[in-house]
Specification:
The complex is a heterodimer of chains A (362) and B (326). By secondary structure, chain A is of the alpha/beta class. Helix content of chain A is 36%, strand content 20%. The radius of gyration of chain A is 21 Å and the shape is globular. The two termini of chain A are 13 Å apart. Chain B has a domain of 186 residues: Orthogonal Bundle (MetI-like fold), CATH 1.10.3720. Chain B is elongated. Chain B has 326 residues and is mostly helical. Classes of the chains: A alpha/beta (362), B mainly alpha (326).
């Protein structure tokens, strides 16, 4: 992936097509909070996250480990244990409120209206059951059909995700599949019930690079066919540029920047997003030292006051007074474009990016 | 697979033979006097010599072990009190003190031990796996702590202390222990062994509760259990199909090895509940320097051990499809 395509992604046509298709939100997250009480205090994993996603569109959620990407998506799937997680706010999927649903209703919802693909297919598939067994189980949970019908459906799905010879492969165990095929099987299992919402949690992280590209193509392809809304969790900006329509940057449990992918990657408005772009190694020209963001992500037990990013922000002194340390900025439009929002006190982020950050990018 | 089993069986045979030879050697190194024991208090040197000759005790040890091993495949004859007894192959010798072929004694004792140990296993596997998986699901709660605490206390008791307490104070409401053949009267068989089963079962259940709890906690934390939940299948199905399926595999391995140890070490249970099993037979033979019976016990014990190890390995290929033997 060259740096060129990261800053000028080729998703414009798809974005335009998808936009015209359906603007009504299928997934609507409003002021979502996820907290875990622990012996050391309350872990504030997600703090007031809001976003919406219409059918046919792909939202990429990016951020460092512990930024709340996975935790918020697990909440959307209703996978958090009610005994250990405190969830408030609202998650509406197809108009139905997910927060506060009973375990019975959640079982009915999971895997049918929404489905999830996990990071490591090696550990996410049960080693003792055959691929076919696991896919038919997912199908028969939500469809009252015979074993043979379910098996036919599983074969059809395996064929659809590009598993060669699915009739024979269906009886294989996961360890008899290669990494890429396991992830394909995982995708087949997630899509077996035609979910309208698909959450992919770093689905290509555990795969090697050539297989990554195939899996990304497959997901994009299937999305086109199924017309579903896709939430794509990743920390790989190259992947984002390739697959996403919108991007949501998270930091310490907050959304800090949100908007169409070409805008956010082409001209980000938040110092953290700048740091992410700067930390991408340049592959062309002379080898340059890496530019990491200084410091480490904060502990979610004690999130910094004001703007959570302020201890690591090199533009803090551009903001008058002690706003950065005392007041948490709102996630609002910072430029004339209302379609993109960011959470930063800087008056002229646009200007700073063009004059100071852009020349530093490789 | 078949080739693997054959190879393992060949090595098992050599293990058994080495064990036999070692026991033989140990017996002759020890200050034993089987002929003297048989001869009794009013023994004449002449009579002693006769006994020694009839038992081939006057031959060198190497010849004796040769005769013993030969007996495994051909009939042997023994002189006892002037009459000649035939011991048909596989002949494991003739008991000095009981006047019976060892094979017959073993054939009586082995079913007793098997009944005790397998019956006990049903009790402890049932209780242990149920309590362990239940505790794993309520991990950290007072109920979980109570289960773990009870298991720990039971586990810390020496087994014979626990067994004696059961035998002395808890037996009265239970039927007396005695052994009846399963084929003769199944009801009497079960009631006669009930106390021994419960005793063996409860003490071992403590360990199995802890194994299954730990194993289940690990299984429920796996990514594939999260995947199963994300499919929307019911909680019970997630726990008992996906979780338990993975959790029983390590427990089954421990069980296989444990079972072999219990079959050869049921002596406390047999002694305390006075059941005529393998342990009692061997212990008596030991006190009376009855070499053939001792060797018979060793033979059965070593066979049980190597066979159980093989069974565990083969069972593993069925429990975990990733395991291939070769």
């Amino acid at each position: 992936m060259s740096d060129q395509s990261i800053r000028a992604p080729q998703t414009v046509t798809r974005t335009a097509r998808a936009r015209g298709l359906n603007e009504e939100a299928y997934l609507q997250v409003t002021d979502l909070q996820v907290q875990f009480p622990t012996a050391d205090g309350m872990v504030k994993a997600v703090q007031g996250l809001s976003y919406s996603l219409p059918l046919g569109r792909t939202l990429a959620i990016v951020g460092e480990s512990g930024s709340g990407k996975s935790v918020s998506s697990m909440a959307v799937m209703g996978l958090h244990d009610a005994k250990t997680a405190r969830i408030s706010g609202s998650i509406k999927v197809g108009g139905r409120e997910i927060v506060g649903l009973s375990e019975k209703d959640l079982e009915n919802y999971r895997g049918k209206d929404s489905a999830m693909i996990f990071q490591d297919p090696q550990s996410s598939l049960h080693p003792y059951f055959t691929i076919g067994d696991q896919i038919t189980e997912a199908y028969r949970t939500h469809n009252k059909v015979s074993r043979s019908k379910a098996k036919a459906r599983a074969i059809e799905m395996l064929d659809r995700v590009g598993i060669p010879n699915p009739r024979r492969r269906i009886d294989n165990y996961p360890h008899e599949f290669s990494g890429g095929m396991r992830q394909r099987a995982m995708i087949a299992m997630a899509l077996v019930n035609d979910p309208k919402l698909l959450i992919a949690d770093e689905p290509t992280t555990a795969l090697d690079v050539t297989v990554q590209a195939q899996i990304l193509d497959l997901i994009a392809d299937l999305q086109r066919d199924f017309g579903s809304a896709v939430v794509f969790i990743t920390h790989d900006l190259g992947v984002v540029a390739e697959i996403a329509d919108d991007i949501l940057v998270m930091y310490a449990g907050n959304a800090i920047e949100h908007g169409p992918v070409d805008k956010i990657l082409g001209q980000p408005l938040h110092p953290y997003s700048w740091g992410l772009l700067e930390s991408i190694p340049a592959l062309a020209g002379e080898p340059q030292p890496l530019h990491p963001i200084p410091g480490t992500p904060p502990s979610l037990l004690a999130v910094p006051s004001g703007c959570a990013f302020h201890p690591r922000c090199e533009f803090r002194d551009r903001v008058p007074g002690d706003l950065c340390t005392t007041l948490k900025p709102d996630l609002i439009p910072r430029t004339a474009d209302p379609g993109r929002t960011s959470r930063c006190h800087l008056k002229d982020p646009d200007q700073i990016f063009r004059s100071e950050i852009l020349p530093r990018l490789p | 697979m078949l080739l693997y089993i054959l190879r393992r069986l060949v090595s098992a045979v050599s293990v058994v033979i080495v064990t036999l030879v070692a026991s033989f050697a140990l017996f002759f190194l020890a200050p034993t006097d089987p002929a003297g024991v048989m001869c009794g208090p009013r023994c004449t040197p002449e009579r002693l010599q006769n006994i020694q000759h009839s038992l081939h005790l006057d031959e060198p040890a190497a010849v004796q072990i040769g005769l013993y091993l030969k007996g495994l495949v051909v009939d042997r004859e023994f002189e006892s009190g002037g009459t000649v007894q035939t011991c048909s192959a596989p002949c494991l010798g003739y008991s000095y003190t009981l006047g019976q072929p060892v094979t017959k004694l073993l054939a009586q004792a082995v079913p007793v031990t098997l009944s005790i140990v397998l019956g006990g296993a049903v009790v402890y596997l049932g209780i242990g796996i149920l309590a362990g998986t239940a505790a794993a699901q309520v991990r950290g709660t007072p109920l979980d702590k109570a289960v773990v605490g009870t298991a720990l206390v039971l586990n810390s008791f020496p087994y014979f202390v626990f067994a004696l307490i059961v035998a002395l104070y808890l037996i009265p409401p239970l039927p007396d222990t005695s052994y009846t053949n399963l084929t003769d009267n199944p009801l009497a068989w079960a009631s006669g062994l009930l106390a021994a089963w419960l005793c063996l079962g409860f003490t071992n259940a403590a360990a199995y509760t802890r194994y299954s709890r730990a194993s289940m906690i690990e299984a429920l934390g796996q990514d594939y259990v999260r995947t199963a939940r994300s499919k929307g299948i019911s909680k019970n199905r997630v726990v008992y199909r996906h979780g338990l399926r993975a959790a029983v595999t390590p427990v089954a391995t421990i069980f296989g090895v444990d079972l072999a140890a219990q079959l050869t070490g049921a002596i406390f249970t047999e002694r305390i509940f006075d059941l005529p099993g393998l342990g009692n037979l061997t212990l008596r033979a030991f006190g009376q320097s009855d070499l053939p019976v001792l060797l018979g016990g060793v033979l059965v014990g070593s066979i049980v051990l190597v066979v159980m190890n093989l069974v565990v390995d083969i069972a593993y290929t069925f429990l975990d499809p990733r395991v291939r033997l070769g």
